[in-house]
Amino acid sequence: MSKQAEDMLRERIAQVEKGGDEKYHAKLKEQNKLFVRDRLKLLFDDEFHVEDGLFANFMAGDLPADGVVTAIGKVNGQTVCVMANDSTVKAGSWGARTVEKIIRIQETAEKMRVPLLYLVDSAGARITDQLEMFPGRRGAGRIFYNQVKLSGKIPQICILFGPSAAGGAYIPAFCDIVIMVDKNASMYLGSPRMAEMVIGEKVTLEELGGARMHCSVSGCGDVLAANEEEAISAARRYLGYFPADYTAKPPVGAAKSPRPDAKKISEIVPENQNAPFNMHELIDALVDEGSFFEVKKLFAQELITGLARLDGKPIGIVANQPRVKGGVLFVDSADKAARFITLCDAFQIPLLFLADVPGFMIGTAVERAGIIRHGAKMISAMAEATVPKISVIVRKAYGAGLYAMASSAFEPDSCLALPGAQIAVMGPEAAVNAVYSNKIQAIEDPQERQAFIMQKRKEYQEDIDIYLLASNLIVDAIIPPEDLRRELIARFDVYANKKQIFSERKHPVYPV
Amino acid sequence: MKNVAATMAGTVINILVQKGDQVKAGQDVIVLESMKMEVPVQAEADGVVAEIKVNSGDFVNDGDVIVVLE
Lengths: 512, 70
Known about the structure:
Largest interface: A-B, 20 and 12 residues
Domain Lipoyl-binding (chain B): 1-70
Protein name (chain B): Biotin carboxyl carrier protein
CATH superfamily of the largest domain in chain A: 2-enoyl-CoA Hydratase, Chain A, domain 1
Shape of chain B: globular
Largest sheet of chain B: 4 strands, antiparallel
CATH class of chain B: Mainly Beta
Distance between the termini of chain A: 61 Å
Number of strands of chain B: 8
Number of domains of chain B: 1
Strand content of chain B: over 45%
Oligomer: heterodimer
Strand content of chain A: 15-25%
CATH superfamily of chain B: RNA polymerase II/Efflux pump adaptor protein, barrel-sandwich hybrid domain
Organism (chain B): Brevibacillus borstelensis AK1
Structural class of chain B: mainly beta
Helix content of chain A: 25-40%
InterPro entries (chain B): Biotin_Carboxyl_Carrier/Decarb, Biotin_lipoyl, Single_hybrid_motif
Keywords (chain B): Biotin
């Protein structure tokens, strides 16, 4: 081969790797965004990676790589596949080759059984190219079809750096986790301009589909990052909890003690069943220091979901948060739990339930919002999970809240209780009112009435005494609070080789 | 004006601030009772209490404004 031909090739590679026009690079800087290849450098362990389709649409002249980089590299030593939009090329929009490249990297990830990351920053389809990229067998619809097919097989992670508009908004929707960059990321079916034209609504992009809105209100976002560096580093951390595919065990990290300033569990959990406390303090006292990766931190905060390490081994935590809305389960918190449980169960991550729950919310608003239908999603996801699962009744578990938090009937590997735990259809106050309402009304003397109520509450307390429940084999063990971490480590270790097929069938009819 | 709204339906059982008080973001300003639980409601931003819109014992719905901050 001539030196000249090689020089020309190198020149052309360098040209394509520069991406779009200089003015679009300047715009990136203005928006506090990084160029796609700089994002990849931050994502991968080292610079080396394999890339296909660099010359996609080369002949067009002004569409380097057709606006998307598809590459294979290493993250934490694990091979991963990546598709990354280049917003300096026609705003990261999709043409026929863009779509074909995305489909091919999906097919590669499926064959190699490795995680797939979607680094999204795209204005959507190029309408001028719609015949080639929209409706056909290998059109954009195929990307979503593949995502659904890959779901639960390999981890799929989305980092949203900019817009994901219209159909493109389904890429994050079909991923396991969506990390959004505050201020820049957005997700919407119709832009604010379209909303005004079509339905007459005047709204800003941030209100309509901004990162903060999605991470706190719609639940489409899982992690809100302050900037791109933080978002990429969150993705790297997240991947550290996951195996390459569903057949492998999650990677074990170095074991660490809980953070040294963690409070004693007996001091964290108040004796008064009705007083709030911060469940995060209990999680801190249980898990390896610095290992908690919270998922949907800003969404439905009455329930906490997150990945953590216990003696180095990954677990998923589902915990009621009495500090927020009394830890009551709502429509959104039930959805949040269902999704997180499914995520952990798909990738062999054991589940720990920390229950302190007064029940599912009642009242007109939630009944109309379908609290029963949403609660059913949580209960069915939890019931179906066959990974090792441990339920800890931290303080109380009332009503269907008990069921939702993986109690005895739902075949946890164990249902444990702390010494102050209460398990009942409802709490003593509500129960006494429900059973003796007429009697209470009939007692005229207020003092006598109060004495009657207190007496009945005391009797009720005795009926739901935790030793009585243990005596009837309803809980498997009562654990001294300060031994809980040690107990959980020992139990998850014992359950590590659990193999269970939940039910033989095609699939359940989901309560969606 | 930054409003503090009820986070869920319930009954006001404790008002922790008075008109004119300086409050910080994250500070508990009112305690509701709902589902037999004490549910503290926090201010989302720093401010001075301009108006308290509820009395102890009032029923509030999710989203009702309970304290107005300036």
